[in-house]
Design a protein that fits this description.
The protein is α/β, with parallel strands linked by helices. It contains 15 helices and 17 strands. Strand 1 (37-41) and strand 2 form a beta hairpin. Bound molecules: pyridoxal-5'-phosphate. The site of pyridoxal-5'-phosphate has 16 residues, from helix 6. The record marks 23 as: Participates in the substrate recognition with KAPA and in a stacking interaction with the adenine ring of SAM.
Length: 453
């Protein structure tokens, strides 16, 4: 519903006085007229003035079935009529048992147990604690280090930041972080290892790290197939299998962080399945509740779980809202919708449409790289297409494009190094997908044309 203009102004002022916004430049926000989103309709967001925006970022990668899906609303209401919250500490509730079983059935071979959490960061940290505890119980407590990929993002809390490798975050928080090692990022467009003749040399750099430090390493963390937060860096087919093979050979655990890629984003239900990889620990979230409630899960193999058996052993970890029944109920309803809407197949078909649309960007001036894996894609802009030299940061090219998209009725986000990231809700129709691409193409062309020469 449209709010009175004065009401919108009142809310903006109140917000700017009181709300501290995450990852938002302070002064720019205080000087802006922020959108006030009042509701959602399918794949559109609606603001307080009644303007509609295509949700091309799936509200940070979580929205799968569109906003206001009747089935999800009903599941939430039905659960609220029973109980909104109870704990999983030493007891259970029906939804937790059902959801854990369904997740295990959908997960890669070998995954057997599910621990519920409420954010991706906590899912990753729990995976790290699981891996370390596993080695303690196996009599190798010196295995307390972690290795992750260049450019990795595994979350925002201090433990998760420690295994992250994005320069802006790493540099800023360095004194607070645990030391970790990294291996090469699978960034074909800027790879100095293979000179555009990929032989997975990036994955092989893991071997050097494990050769050096292997005895102290608890686990290798990997974002299977696509590093979403650092700009949709798409690894070549077989990359994950190579990483997994090396980790196995050195006897360290493999943690797959599927926060950004799970639930059909890259084609199959989970990205690991494309490369036929079974990780020891699997973190899922973002799409788990179709974008309705904060719920994530850290899943583990039987081998990992069994290390916690006997002698009063346990996982010393858990959060107050772990396995919240409302969140669990809506996750179950979301999995029902995957079946009812045949969503995995739909997503794969839409990925073909997206690929067609993305082709139109390749000939636009200053477009350096176009990357796609399923319904995750990115357009990277550069100052010089020949040398791949980035634009000066101050130009804010990607920000200008996302702002222009907003004027044209679409919310879309950018990543570092002038990359526009495309994360449409899986449910998007062909027509909506083509509208999305058309708006982005227009915005990109206009902004590129307006740049100083
Ligand atoms: C989003 C994301 C996280 C962090 O999840 P939060 O819920 O924001 O804590 C971790 N890893 C990957 C790959 C992600 O995409």
């Amino acid at each position: 519903m449209d709010l009175e203009t004065t009401e919108t102004e009142r809310l903006r002022t109140l917000d700017q006085q009181r709300v501290w916004h995450p990852y938002t430049p302070t002064d720019a926000y205080l000087n802006a007229k922020p959108l006030v989103i009042t509701h959602g309709e399918g794949v559109y967001l609606v603001d307080s003035d009644g303007n509609r925006y295509l949700d091309a970022g799936s509200s940070l990668g979580v929205n799968i079935h569109g906003h206001q899906r009747r089935e999800l609303n009903e599941a939430l209401a039905a659960q609220a009529a029973k109980i909104a919250h109870t704990t999983l500490y030493g007891m259970t509730h029906p939804g937790a048992a059902e959801l854990a079983d369904r997740l295990v059935r959908l997960a890669p071979e070998g995954i057997d147990k599910v621990l519920f959490l409420e954010s991706g960061s906590s899912a990753v940290e729990t995976a790290m604690k699981m891996a370390y505890s596993y080695w303690v119980f196996k009599g190798s407590p010196q295995r307390n280090k972690f290795v992750s990929m260049g450019g990795a993002f595994h979350g925002d809390t201090i433990g998760a930041l420690s295994v992250g490798q994005m320069t802006i975050l790493k540099n800023f928080y360095q004194p607070l972080l645990r030391e970790t090692s990294s291996f090469a990022q699978p960034y074909a467009y800027r790879c100095g290892l293979c000179h555009n003749n990929c032989n997975l040399a990036c994955a092989d750099t893991l071997e050097e790290v494990l050769e050096r430090e292997g005895d102290e390493v608890a686990a290798v963390l990997v974002e299977p197939r696509v590093q979403n937060v650092s700009g949709m860096i798409v690894a070549r087919d077989g990359h994950l299998a190579r990483v997994a093979e090396i980790a196995r050979r050195y006897g360290v655990l493999l943690i797959a962080d599927e926060l950004g890629v799970g639930f059909g984003r890259t084609g199959p239900m989970f990205a690991c399945q494309a490369d036929g990889v079974s990780p020891d620990i699997l973190c899922v979230g973002k799409g788990l509740t179709g974008g309705y409630m904060p719920l994530t899960a850290t899943m583990a193999s039987k081998e990992v779980f069994d290390a916690f058996r006997g002698d009063g052993k346990m996982l010393l970890s858990g959060h107050t809202f772990s396995g919240n029944p409302l969140a669990v109920a809506v996750a179950l309803a979301s999995l029902d919708l995957f079946e009812k809407d045949d969503l995995i197949r739909h997503g794969q078909a839409q990925a073909v449409v997206l690929a067609e649309e993305l082709d139109k960007f390749r000939s636009v001036a200053h477009v350096g790289d176009v990357r796609q894996c399923g319904l995750l894609a990115a357009v990277e802009l550069v100052a010089d297409v020949e040398t791949r030299e980035p634009f000066p940061m101050e130009l804010g090219v990607a920000t200008r494009i996302t702002e222009r998209c907003r004027e044209l009725g679409m919310i879309i986000h950018s990543a570092p190094s002038d990359t526009i990231v495309i994360v449409p809700p899986l449910v998007m129709t062909e027509e909506e997908l083509r509208t999305m691409a058309r708006i982005l193409l227009q915005a990109t062309q206009e902004v590129v044309a307006s740049l100083p020469t």
